[in-house]
Amino acid sequence: MEESEIIEEFKKCGALLEGHFILSSGLHSTKYLQCALALSRPKLAKKLTLALGEKIKNRFNEHIDFVIAPAMGGLIIGHQIAMFLDLPFLFLERVDGEFNLRRGFSIKSGSNCLMIEDVVTTGLSSKEAINVVNRLGGNVIGEASLIDRSGGNVDIGIELLSLVTLDIPTYESNEIPDDLKLIPAEKPGSRNL
Question: With helix as H, strand as E and coil as C, how does 35-76 read?
């Protein structure tokens, strides 16, 4: 899938929202990518998985023991990529605001994993999740995401491979353009779930 085709699919299914949004990072934006809507359509989810999965296979040659994703955003695509790669899937979830490995999941010391995210903006969730895996003895060899909305500028400390790279402006609370201030802000993210 070409980037333009993916963006068009997001628009068609209502997954590319326009307005005033407060992202999980706390930054403000005029656009929000609701990947859960796109991934709720099985045919589109399959196309996105195949496209990202092929990029992963062509880039990450290291031995991967499992795929891991932070909840909520990375769950669906992470599971789909694990199926594509025929690898076990683990996920991290927040407990009292901190990522934890629960539900009987464990990481064998020295094992290699690939982190999967839906959208990366500042990389904060990715960095938090990578730190948890490292603390538990795992080695995150790279991360793959559907969308990098930083324009390729985000640094998460490891290689980030994305299906689509967009440069969508974000604003600190004290730097919001006047026209955006007039639009009521929505906070659709999952950081506090």
Answer: HHHHHCCHHHHHHHHHHHHHHHHHHCCCCCCEEEEECCCCHH
Total tally of structural domains belonging to the chain: 1
Q: pLDDT at residue 54 above 80?
A: yes
The domain that holds 72 is classified in CATH as 3.40.50.2020
20-51 pLDDT, tens per residue? 999 888 889 999 999 889 999 999 999 999 99
Domain that holds residue 177: 3-181
Report the DSSP pairing between strands 98-101 and 112-120: unpaired
Domain membership flag for residue 187:
no
**Contact residues for 114 (Cβ-Cβ < 8 A; gap 6+):** 56, 60, 64, 66, 67, 68, 81, 85, 140, 141, 142, 143, 144
Q: Is 126 helix (H, G, I), strand (E, B) or coil?
A: helix
pTM of this prediction exceeds 0.90: no
